[in-house]
Amino acid sequence: MIIEAERSCLLLVDFQGRLAPAISSAMETVAAARRLALAARLFDVPVIASEQNPQGLGPTIEALRDLPELVIAKTAFDASRQSELQDALDEDRDTVLIAGWEAHVCVMQTAFGLKMNGFAPVVVADAIGSRQPASKAAALDRLARHGVEIVTSEMVVFEWLQDCEHPRFKEALALIK
Fold this sequence. Notes:
This protein is an alpha/beta fold. Helices cover about 40% and strands about 20% of the residues. The chain starts with 7 loop residues before the first strand and ends with a helix. The model has no long low-confidence stretch (mean pLDDT about 95). This is Isochorismatase. It comes from Chelatococcus daeguensis. InterPro entries: Isochorismatase-like_dom, Isochorismatase-like_sf, Isochorismatase_domain.
C-alpha cells in the first residue's frame, strides 16, 4: 500500500508535556512527529491531536502545540472512541498515520479502534514512544501481526512526494535532512 497525501490524515496521540520525562527517547519521537506534521502541512494533510486527561497531564507539548488543526480531549485510551474524532475523520482520507505516546496503550488501542471502524491505521515507528523500549517493541510487533502498517516518518514523506519533480520536493527534503 502506497501512502497518498490526498488520502491521509495525521493523528498525534497524547504528546503531553507531563508524560515527556517518563518516555524513552521522548525528544527524538517529538522531532519525528514534528517533521511529519510540518510535511503534512506541505501536502495539505489534516493534522489532529488527542490529549489524554488534559486536566491531569496538561496540554500537547510545546514543540507540537501549534501544528494540529484540531485538539481532542479524551479519557478513553482509544482516541477513535471520541465522537469529535469520529466527526473529524473523513472517509476519503482513510489512511490515518499515527504518532504518539504511549505506544503500547493509547497508540495501539487507537490503531486497533480505527481499523475496526474501517480506516487504515499506519503507525510511524520513529514517532511513537513508551516508558520502556520493550513495551514499544511489543506494541509494534502486535500491531504488525494484526495487519497494521508500520513505517518511518521518512518513508511517509517520500510516499507523499511520489516524485522528485513534485513542486514541494525541496521543502520536504529540507525537513528530512
